[in-house]
Write a structure and sequence with these properties.
By secondary structure, this protein is mainly beta. Helix content is about 10%, strand content about 30%. The longest helix is centred in the N-terminal third of the chain and has 13 residues. The protein starts with 14 loop residues before the first helix and ends in a 22-residue tail after the last strand.
């Protein structure tokens, strides 16, 4: 449950150092930065707080976080971008819009101040194939060409031994072509997507971590990815450590082992997600108390101070900037007004109250490597039980510079999509004041149906759809026979769940939750579990009736609707029927399938991937109680979402060439000096 707020040139580095840097960065945990959090706790209201949309959460539906839209940047007449195929994808380490990507020297958002904190430069693009020329660069040590007309001095050194073995080499390359490139095919269509899917039936579905840090210390200021010292407990006798967050280790259990590096957010970009893990309590009644290092938010907030520099000469406290409570029974998230209640065990209800559910640190720095403030956005919940209990927790960290005007926004490529990065997704939003239309982009991309720790369905659990992946994600709805019958007949009469016999192979604690979902009969389950996404007006869910968009490019701009393509949503056939004799509900809308037509643009060595068409279809199943002897037991039924990506047919154009050179070469101004002067 992420509580996100919506709100360069190459340095000279030795080859060996660059290889080490690339290997290091590949292992360092990273995340997209997000906008500055508010300095006060929000007012209480139903649902999450969204800064730029009127959608609110109710009835247990999930309210997807989205990026705020600056309508001063929105064009009244959006235009598709102009693509230069021989220059596209020149800075693929730039994966955050409106924010500087750490160690990405080609990122236009990085100023000289940012680059001064870099520990090196990431590769800017895939390495292009190279020709072996007859005179390698190693032969020439210095070429002194100070100005036109001056004497040129060339110093030569002894060539390498392997130079003499290069008997075959290129003396002159007069090939006028830049290379082979994919042309931009433009937008796709429903017919084209269907045609490609027909020829590729295999593309469709039938119905932790210990991270290393740089061991470098700079006393007066932090450098990129440097470990951040912290102090726990009282000011006079603090316990010193390094800033870290829990991650899943063996068995998915939480352990505080992921060190947070300066300016390296967690997650660093859209290709990753918040760190999620399971917190298990052997004896909840004794482990639940106001200072619990695992269950209480105080351990991560009020008891923690962060060093402003590596010197540990001054510390700033972690302050609560936003607090909310999550109701696990209904899925509601409500803002807490005032101070956050302490973690306590209620013996009467056998419940641990105000347990940490999710935590997000927002670290503010001055741009010179000095931390000036640390805020915390916290979500708490209640956990029932006396002995063993388990809770999924979520952690993230965001870094931001003081005075940042535009919120950082995650990208899934620059510009083309990277494989397995989230498909960009959003809904149409219109500004009441200007009448301009933009896209409210979801921070975690296109959601797929997912499950809680027990595999059961709830609208609060979704996962991002990775680009290019033929994937499926599912959850289970556990129903009694009578409950299934009422669901199939759209009978909203209250259902009183009986006690589950000890011999039953399936148990559930969500009977009341599903009953709440079934109280509204006009909306199929997959749409409800996606909080109304892809539902029409009149259906239940936060987003029912909206217009739904996929990003054409991995860096599609929410302020330019021409950078996005609207989903085609297949019409529903919600005609369920119940067969009492067979115990079967026929034609249940049980899944949603995403279908994408994609294309490549640019060089064959570095093709940029784009979405040309997007479609949503629904799948149907028959739900049957399989064993009459177990009619007293609940039975699990699957609800799922799946994805299909197919490439558009394309021909590679080999005729991308530079302009023809002039007939007469351009001479320097002093070519005829001193015979001719102005």
């Amino acid at each position: 449950m992420a509580r996100r707020r919506r709100t360069g040139r190459q340095l000279a580095v030795k080859a060996v150092a660059m290889a080490a840097l690339v290997a290091l960065v590949a292992r360092v945990p990273v995340v997209q930065a997000v906008a500055q959090s508010e300095t006060s706790v929000g007012v209480e209201r139903q649902g999450r707080r969204l800064e730029s949309t009127a959608y609110t959460s109710s009835g247990g539906y999930k309210d997807f976080d989205s990026y705020a839209v600056d309508y001063t940047l929105v064009s009244a007449a959006p235009e598709p971008r102009t693509v230069q195929v021989n220059d596209i994808g020149a800075c693929f380490c730039d994966l955050m819009a409106n924010a500087c990507d750490s160690n990405c020297c080609c990122d236009p958002d990085c100023d000289d101040q940012d680059k001064a904190l870099f520990s090196g430069c990431l590769p800017e693009s895939p390495e292009n194939p190279k020709l072996t020329y007859c005179v390698p660069k190693s032969v020439v040590q210095t070429v002194n060409l100070k100005s036109s007309g001056s004497l040129a001095v060339v110093h030569k050194t002894t060539p390498k031994k392997d130079f003499f073995s290069e008997l075959l080499c290129v003396e002159k390359d007069n090939n006028p072509a830049f290379g082979n490139f994919f042309m931009d095919p433009g937008a796709g269509s429903s017919d084209k997507l269907t045609e490609v899917l027909t020829r590729n039936p295999q593309a469709q579905y039938e119905t932790s971590v210990l991270e290393t840090q740089q061991a470098v210390t700079f006393e007066s200021s932090y450098r990129a990815n440097e470990t951040i010292p912290v102090a726990h407990g009282a000011t006079d006798t603090p316990k010193h450590a390094a800033l870290s967050i829990p991650v899943a280790v063996f068995g998915g259990k939480c352990r505080d082992v992921e060190l947070v590096g300066f300016a390296s957010s967690v997650p660093l970009n859209a290709g990753q997600g918040p760190r999620k893990c399971l917190r298990r309590a052997k004896q909840l009644s004794t482990e639940c108390f106001a200072g619990s290092p695992f269950l209480s938010p105080a351990h991560y907030v009020s008891d923690l101070k962060v060093s402003t520099t590596p010197a540990r000469s001054a510390y700033v406290p972690v302050t609560m900037t936003e607090a909310s409570t999550f109701d696990s029974a209904t899925g509601e998230i409500v803002a807490i007004a005032g101070a956050l209640p302490g973690t306590t065990y209620n013996a009467a209800s056998a419940t641990c109250e105000n347990v940490l559910k999710s935590l997000k640190y927002v670290v503010t720095h001055n741009g010179n490597g000095v931390i000036t403030a640390v805020g915390a956005e916290v979500v708490v919940t209640n956990v029932a039980g006396t002995a063993g209990a388990a809770l999924e927790q979520e952690f993230s960290v965001a870094f931001q510079k003081e005075g940042t005007s535009q919120p950082a926004r995650g990208k899934s490529g620059n510009p083309g999509y990277r494989a397995t990065y989230p498909v960009l997704f959003g809904i149409e939003e219109t500004d009441a004041g200007t009448g301009k239309t933009a896209v409210s982009q979801f921070t975690e991309g296109l959601p797929m149906i997912s499950s809680d720790a027990r595999g059961e369905c709830t609208a609060q659990y979704t996962r991002s759809l990775p680009y290019g992946s033929q994937s499926m994600s599912s959850c289970k709805v556990t129903l009694f026979r009578e409950q299934l019958k009422r669901f199939c007949n759209k009978d909203t009469t209250a259902f009183a769940a009986p006690a589950i016999p000890a011999y039953c192979p399936v148990t559930t604690d969500k009977t009341d939750y599903f009953q709440t979902f079934f109280a509204e009969t006009a909306t199929p389950l997959p749409i409800k579990l996606l909080s109304g996404l892809f539902g029409s007006s009149g259906m239940a869910g936060t987003y029912a009736g909206a217009k739904f968009y996929a990003g054409v490019w991995g860096d599609s701009d929410p302020a330019n609707t021409a950078d996005w393509i609207e989903f085609e949503v297949e019409s529903l056939d919600d005609g369920m029927s119940w067969n009492e004799q067979e115990g079967t509900c026929s034609k249940v809308v049980s899944g949603v399938q995403y279908e994408f037509l994609t294309a490549n643009v640019g060089s064959q060595q570095n093709p940029q991937r784009k979405v040309t068409y997007a479609r949503v279809k629904f799948t149907y199943d028959d739900w049957t109680f399989s064993d009459p002897a177990l009619d007293a037991c609940p039975q699990a039924f699957s609800v799922y979402s799946s994805s299909t990506f197919v490439e558009m047919d394309q021909q590679v154009d080999e005729n991308v060439k530079p302009p023809a050179p002039p007939v007469f070469p351009k001479l320097p101004e002093d070519a005829f000096y001193p015979f001719l002067t102005n």
